[in-house]
Amino acid sequence: MMRVQPELIRRTVEALLLEHPEVREDEDLRITAIEGETDTFELLAIALDDIREAQMMRSAITEHIEALRARATRFERREEFQRKLVLRIMEAAKLCKAVLPQATLSVRPAPRAVRIINQAFIPDPFWRVKREPDLSQIKAALKAGTDVPGAALSNAPDTLAILTR
Question: Does this model's pTM top 0.70?
Answer without folding.
Answer: no
